[in-house]
């Protein structure tokens, strides 16, 4: 399945958002995720099914002013 | 003590965490400034969560409260979504709301700002709106649920200092009980002291410290200037006068001619 993750094209096998994070080796309770512009809370990632062409954002704490 | 959304702080300096020469210097500057609140952001994570995790651990080790921002958002939707993601990651309802309206000046899109503030306040966020010094916009932000205001005094990162003291005074005068924090445009400790002398409750800055020759020393200087400005405000500064007024008694002068 082809997904756009943080603006880049990826070919992945994961069927859920939680599985996608594991497949891409993302780790940590400080990550925030969104699917097609909508926030997906951490507790809902297991049940969040992915479809071909989905846009995913994976964000983390960063410096800011 | 200053109270922001029910949280009391003794330092009236809110400090940004960007643009420092190194994470170690950032940490040292935060400590030297005495700031109890620091701003942070959310960005795309590209290395499996490791970059963000390291930064987050460092911030947590400093024992400060975080104020996440929506920096760089140009639409209401972007800002609201970023705020929701920040709430989850940082575990706080606080959000420094930025809806940018112009690429060159980085000035707020005040129409989008009011709209986003209304949505977020209704969803239980404690909104810290980055706004202009416009009095009517300030009123609208309070109408939609903001309990404090963060007007700029000059464009972000410009270091120009207060460009419109009359507008800042007007805001202070119209909203005597609303916490007012000058956010953006401060370049030097004297700028910070100036707005504190006007009765502003706090100052939020980043670049002026982070890009100084010695960020740690500058952080300390800002901490002192802000405290001095606050003390001066409470002490009741003199109004400027058109003419000279002698300070030494004129009665009792000797007559030599």
From TrEMBL, chain A:
InterPro entries with a match to the protein in the record: Beta-grasp_dom_sf, Mopterin_synth/thiamin_S_b, Thi_S, ThiS/MoaD-like
Pfam family, any one: ThiS
Gene3D superfamilies recorded: 3.10.20.30
NCBIfam families named among the record's database cross-references: thiS
Name of the protein this chain belongs to: Sulfur carrier protein
Native organism: Aminobacter ciceronei
From TrEMBL, chain B:
Active-site residues per Swiss-Prot or TrEMBL entry: 96 (schiff-base intermediate with dxp)
Domain Thiazole synthase ThiG: 4-249
Subcellular location: Cytoplasm
Organism superkingdom: Bacteria
Amino-acid positions noted as binding 1-deoxy-D-xylulose 5-phosphate in the UniProt annotation, renumbered to this chain: 157, 184-185, 206-207
Signal peptide: none
Enzyme Commission code(s) on record: 2.8.1.10
Record's keyword terms, sorted: Cytoplasm, Schiff base, Thiamine biosynthesis, Transferase
Catalytic reaction list: [ThiS sulfur-carrier protein]-C-terminal-Gly-aminoethanethioate + 2-iminoacetate + 1-deoxy-D-xylulose 5-phosphate = [ThiS sulfur-carrier protein]-C-terminal Gly-Gly + 2-[(2R,5Z)-2-carboxy-4-methylthiazol-5(2H)-ylidene]ethyl phosphate + 2 H2O + H(+)
Major localization listed first in the record, in broad terms: cytoplasm
Pathway named in the protein's UniProt entry: Cofactor biosynthesis; thiamine diphosphate biosynthesis
Gene Ontology molecular functions: thiazole synthase activity
Xref: InterPro entries: Aldolase_TIM (IPR013785), Thiazole_synthase_ThiG (IPR033983), ThiG (IPR008867)
SUPFAM superfamilies given in the database record: ThiG-like
Leading EC class: transferase
Family: Belongs to the ThiG family.
Assembly behavior: Homotetramer. Forms heterodimers with either ThiH or ThiS.
Function of the molecule: Catalyzes the rearrangement of 1-deoxy-D-xylulose 5-phosphate (DXP) to produce the thiazole phosphate moiety of thiamine. Sulfur is provided by the thiocarboxylate moiety of the carrier protein ThiS. In vitro, sulfur can be provided by H(2)S.
Name assigned to this protein: Thiazole synthase
Lineage, uppermost ranks: Bacteria, Pseudomonadati, Pseudomonadota, Alphaproteobacteria, Hyphomicrobiales
């Amino acid at each position: 399945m082809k997904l756009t993750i943080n603006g880049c094209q990826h070919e992945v096998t994961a069927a859920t958002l939680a599985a996608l994070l594991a497949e891409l080796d993302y780790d940590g309770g400080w990550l925030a995720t969104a699917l097609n512009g909508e926030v997906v809370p951490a507790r809902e990632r297991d049940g969040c099914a992915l479809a071909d062409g989905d846009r995913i954002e994976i964000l983390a704490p960063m410096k800011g002013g | 003590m200053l109270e922001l959304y029910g949280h009391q702080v003794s330092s009236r300096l809110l400090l940004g965490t960007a643009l420092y020469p190194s994470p170690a210097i950032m940490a040292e500057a935060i400590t030297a400034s005495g700031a109890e609140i620091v701003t942070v952001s959310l960005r795309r994570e590209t290395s499996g969560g490791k970059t963000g995790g390291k930064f987050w651990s460092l911030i947590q080790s400093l024992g400060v409260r975080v104020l996440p921002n929506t920096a760089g958002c140009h639409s209401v939707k972007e800002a609201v979504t970023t705020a929701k993601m920040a709430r989850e990651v940082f575990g706080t309802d606080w959000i420094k709301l930025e809806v940018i309206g112009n690429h060159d000046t980085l000035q707020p899109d005040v129409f989008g700002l009011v709209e986003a503030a209304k949505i977020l306040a209704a969803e239980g966020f404690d909104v810290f709106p980055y706004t202009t010094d416009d009095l009517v916009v300030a009123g609208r932000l309070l109408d939609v649920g903001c309990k404090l205001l963060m007007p700029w005094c000059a464009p972000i990162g410009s270091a120009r200092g207060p460009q419109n003291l009359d507008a800042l005074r007007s805001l202070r005068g119209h909203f005597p009980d609303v916490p007012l924090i000058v956010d953006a445009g401060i370049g030097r400790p004297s700028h910070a002291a100036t707005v504190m002398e006007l009765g502003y409750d706090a100052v939020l800055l980043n670049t002026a410290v982070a890009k100084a020759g010695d960020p740690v020393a500058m952080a300390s200087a800002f901490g002192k200037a802000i405290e001095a400005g606050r003390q001066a405000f409470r002490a009741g500064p003199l109004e400027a006068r058109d003419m000279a007024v002698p300070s030494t008694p004129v009665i009792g002068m000797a007559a030599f001619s």
